[in-house]
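Take a specimen:
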Amino acid sequence: MINKAFDIVNRKVEAALSEQGFTQQNVSGTNSNELAALYTGESVAYSVIYYKDKKHMVMRSCSMTEDGPDNEWKTIGTWMFDPVTDSEREAESIGNDFAESVAAPKFVQTPKQKKKKKNSDDGNGDPVFFSKRLVAIFPELKDEIKEEEESYEQFRAVTFTREKIVPKVAELMNRNNKKEVDKLAEVLSAQYSYGDIDTRPLITIIILNSVTDENQKEALRSEMSEELQKAWKAAEKYRGKKVKPAKKKKQSFMQKMMAQSIENQKAYSEGRL
């Protein structure tokens, strides 16, 4: 199943990139844990990787040199795909997302042109990227994200998460469907790992802290990463405190909250909490 799913994803990607003059190269994964595809252009290379152990389908980009890709890969998108429970439908969704990503003007350039120095705790995924990853679980978010982007100059990450995502998470948890809960935990874990300093508090302080039923909390924790488990533990002290969606102060506020959350995670791991 995974080979077929990987082919479905890459047919979509190849179609999007061939229109821009990219060529698919004959490559294979570096080890038995990986499936890999590589597409090269004049200044940019793209690759699709499936990691069998993590069950992650990843789209990456890097710059091209005279000798080929420089291998300084930057992650564009990450999706969970479990060949045991997921189907061709999920593979089609992943392929469409990846194809849309590489067709977007912001990626048709040398990645180095957009590089900026960032904190070592800061990942690649911003709140919009994170919200779009949840479309795989909540399809109705696709139109709601589009409406948010068209209606406001700046994506209101806190407000959107609180008003659009949290109620959907509550409904999912109340259905008590193990497959759905497990998938939510996997997606949140992956996006916490890839998320930037504005995204991570959305996951812990707003989404996870909205889950108060002990049985539901345990169901989520049992399938999420150790990293996210520790972050959620540290974020619980903020439960009930208002996260202000003020436009001008959003970034500094989120950075302050994230810095405190990181410090609490460190203290927890050292046994000081």
